Amino acid sequence: MEKETKEVVLSHIKDGTYVPDMLFDIQKLMAKAGMELYAKPCCDRIEAAGLVDKVHVLRIQPSPWKLQVDADGMEACRGILEAYLQPEYLNEMYEIIKGCRDWTISVNNMLYSLRKISSKDLKADLMDNFVYKVGEDDEQGVTELFKAELENRKLWGRMRKLTRRTAFVIQMLRMFPGPLQILVPFIKESWKSWNTAGIVPHVESNGKYTKALRRFTDIHGGTRCIERLQGVDLARYIFLAVKAYGKENPAEFNHTKAYKSCLEIENRYQKLKQVMDTIGRLTPLELLRMFPVKKEYDGEKWGTKDYYYTMERLRRLPADKPIGDAQDVAVLLWDYQNWDLTELLLQWQNVLGDLHVYCNEPGPQDEFDERLQKAV
To answer: pTM score, two decimals?
Structure first.
């Protein structure tokens, strides 16, 4: 582990925060190439094209035209930037920005892992629980990180984090836009997100089901109130969530990338878990009414699952009792022939795989495999 990286990790262990994503000033990128005079018209074109999404492409206050981008933002703006900058220079800058992003993800994955490891395992110096495989050269550095995290969990460390968290919420309240009706949810969200401020969030699709789901949850008090839904509202949420997360927000099926953000994976896991848990409140009969089984009847001929196979699987469950938790739902969907639910199951399996591969959290994946074997 490089000395500079270790120092950054130790600093954020003490603060209780994560490393914010790096953003790069378009004006400075163009100035480095001797094109600073064209920075304003370039930024104006980017804004006119509707590329300022306030996530990957942001405006720098108070200037009305200076913009910042991350790696994804640079790719989104490449068509306009190529009118002012040479492709070779753009490619070089993109690789630098992408390298910075990968480094930030790597450091934040270390912090995520340290905060997930139990105090007992930290004391025992169990490096198998760390997010990355620890080589002999890194053992001393990782041991130092373990000790720092353990020390930070003591009273003074917790008090320091509480002070910083409170200060962050007060700072956010100074920028509270109103109205008063959203003050309490605003405070709760600020309290929850204090340690991830500055990290680029995952941008959900603008598909019709995603937008409808967003409106629905806003009207019903946010995602924290989903567990209170009953009757028609419960059915509406499940229908929209299955469509939104299964069809419109598919995650990348790729377990060979060097880095994926554990914070993003955890966030995706929690969202999908809420959807699966909510489906689990339905009885098998209610699920069948909402998502009819695909009308294919030749499964025996071709050795595949069909309508009869699914109905036989449903008969093994109590018809008038809820299906169960998220993993119970996943096991049922393994045999359930409905394309919408199959797409949702694929996303669930993908996020469990990401937790295992990138975050060294095999627990949810192992639990699913065990329950699936018992159900066979």
So the answer is: 0.83
